[in-house]
Automatic annotation (TrEMBL):
<dbReference type="GO" id="GO:0005886">
    <property type="term" value="C:plasma membrane"/>
</dbReference>
<keyword id="KW-0812">Transmembrane</keyword>
<feature type="transmembrane region" description="Helical">
    <location>
        <begin position="340"/>
        <end position="359"/>
    </location>
</feature>
<feature type="transmembrane region" description="Helical">
    <location>
        <begin position="209"/>
        <end position="227"/>
    </location>
</feature>
<protein>
    <submittedName>
        <fullName>ChrA protein</fullName>
    </submittedName>
</protein>
<feature type="transmembrane region" description="Helical">
    <location>
        <begin position="126"/>
        <end position="146"/>
    </location>
</feature>
<feature type="transmembrane region" description="Helical">
    <location>
        <begin position="306"/>
        <end position="328"/>
    </location>
</feature>
<feature type="transmembrane region" description="Helical">
    <location>
        <begin position="91"/>
        <end position="114"/>
    </location>
</feature>
<comment type="similarity">
    <text>Belongs to the chromate ion transporter (CHR) (TC 2.A.51) family.</text>
</comment>
<dbReference type="InterPro" id="IPR014047">
    <property type="entry name" value="Chr_Tranpt_l_chain"/>
</dbReference>
<dbReference type="Pfam" id="PF02417">
    <property type="entry name" value="Chromate_transp"/>
</dbReference>
<keyword id="KW-1133">Transmembrane helix</keyword>
<feature type="transmembrane region" description="Helical">
    <location>
        <begin position="158"/>
        <end position="189"/>
    </location>
</feature>
<dbReference type="GO" id="GO:0015109">
    <property type="term" value="F:chromate transmembrane transporter activity"/>
</dbReference>
<keyword id="KW-0472">Membrane</keyword>
<keyword id="KW-1003">Cell membrane</keyword>
<dbReference type="InterPro" id="IPR003370">
    <property type="entry name" value="Chromate_transpt"/>
</dbReference>
């Protein structure tokens, strides 16, 4: 009878696990289809669905999870979704939550890449319009983040220094050193700023598994560039470029733009026009902006390239969330860590401002008419509060009109 009882329990566990995974899939896929507006809006959708509607987390634990995702490099909204999936159903739950939230925009951007290949870029006016939309979207992000993250003398100083370093010293190493320096300055200047006491998160993941995730993250970050140099293989070079970009980006999807541009365009994998056209299209689809990698991969190597690039750019986010989440409650109470977060966030504003200038502004605003059109789109997005996807459509249509003027 004991064996029969144990057998019954064993049959119940998988069904419970499968039910949880199925629920995570349904909710995350719905969010992936409907979450327009960028990472801040995504976190609002998550709060409504996961906290208010389903009560998978309480307010304090959700806020604590968001604080972790803002600290880690990578896409904050995707990391929050992964973290919620892990808290709900372990590592597999995190994977299902990521897949559901990411898949819709990946499919849309791959189809867009094939559309561009089918019709050819040439000097299409609507492509130029998408480039102008990118100027408006990034400008809005700079203003929004600057008001929150660089709103006093010391934080603004860090932001301006980050702007200067990013524009003058344009290498992948400079971004890493810049973030380390910003964290160090943050510890010195901001560690005394008071914050709310941290809350405990119940994480169904062992610290051993978390440690293994962090080791894998570091081994890939260090080892991939070495393998790339020794092999000369295009697929390995692609994986290294996208993995490194996903590993070193603080501040979300917009900040990945300069890193990806330096990896893709100078290597002649894509032209600057193709790159910015895809970035503009990425604003029109729901879900995380990091799925821009799917467009780039599809433009380079078809559907297999899209899958490869998407896995590479999101893998660091998954490994970091799984690696840090079990330790987060303890780390969050450290004032030096809190100061480092403030310094890094201020530097992100400067990096984003540098991206706004080059390549976004310099590639899109070529004459006075372009600047006037950008101002109109900014008015519609920021003051008239039109949804980003509608502004993208207006940008594409207006780009065609600019050709006729």
């Amino acid at each position: 009878m004991v064996e029969e009882h144990e057998r019954d329990q064993g049959e119940d566990r998988p069904s419970g696990k499968l039910a949880a995974l199925n629920e995570i899939w349904r909710v995350s896929f719905k969010l992936g289809l409907t979450s327009f507006g960028g990472p801040i809006a995504h976190l609002g959708y998550f709060h409504h669905e996961y906290v208010r509607q389903r009560k998978w987390l309480d307010e304090r634990n959700y806020a604590d999870l968001i604080a972790l995702c803002q600290l880690l490099p990578g896409p904050a909204s995707s990391q929050a979704g992964i973290g919620i999936g892990i808290l709900r159903a372990g590592l597999l739950g995190g994977l299902v939550a990521w897949l559901g939230f990411t898949l819709p925009s990946v499919v849309m951007l791959v189809l867009f890449a094939y559309l561009l290949k089918g019709i050819g870029l040439s000097d299409a006016g609507w492509i130029h319009g998408l480039k102008i939309v990118a100027v408006v979207i990034v400008l809005q992000a700079v203003l929004s983040m600057g008001q929150k993250l660089a709103n006093d003398r010391n934080k603004a100083t860090i932001a301006v220094l980050a702007l200067a370093v990013t524009l003058v010293w344009q290498t992948a190493v400079s971004q890493v050193l810049l973030m380390i320096a910003a964290a160090g300055i943050g510890v010195l200047w901001f560690r005394k700023e008071a914050t709310a006491a941290p809350t405990e998160l119940s994480v169904p993941l062992s610290r051993r598994a978390a440690f293994i995730s962090l080791v894998i993250f570091l081994v890939l970050l260090v080892g991939l560039p070495l393998l790339r140099e020794s092999s000369g293989n295009l697929w390995l070079a692609m994986f290294d470029s996208f993995y490194r970009s996903g590993s070193l980006v603080f501040g979300g999807g917009h900040v990945v733009l300069p890193l990806l541009e330096r990896e893709v365009v100078p290597n002649d994998w894509l032209s600057a026009g193709e790159f910015l056209a895809g970035y503009g299209a990425a604003q029109a689809v729901p879900g995380p902006l990091f799925t821009f990698a799917a467009y780039l991969g599809a433009s380079m190597l078809g559907t297999a390239g899209a899958v490869w690039a998407t896995l590479a750019i999101f893998l660091p986010a998954f490994l970091l969330v799984a690696g840090v989440l079990p330790f987060w409650s303890g780390l969050r109470s450290n004032r030096k860590m809190q100061g480092a977060i403030i310094g890094v966030n201020a530097a992100v504003v400067g990096i984003l401002l540098a991206a706004l200038y080059h390549p976004v502004f310099t590639s899109a605003i070529l004459e006075a008419n372009d600047l006037v059109f950008a101002a109109v789109l900014f008015l519609l997005l920021v003051f008239w509060k039109l949804p980003p996807w509608l502004v993208v459509l207006a940008g594409a249509a207006g780009g065609e009109l600019l050709v006729l003027i």
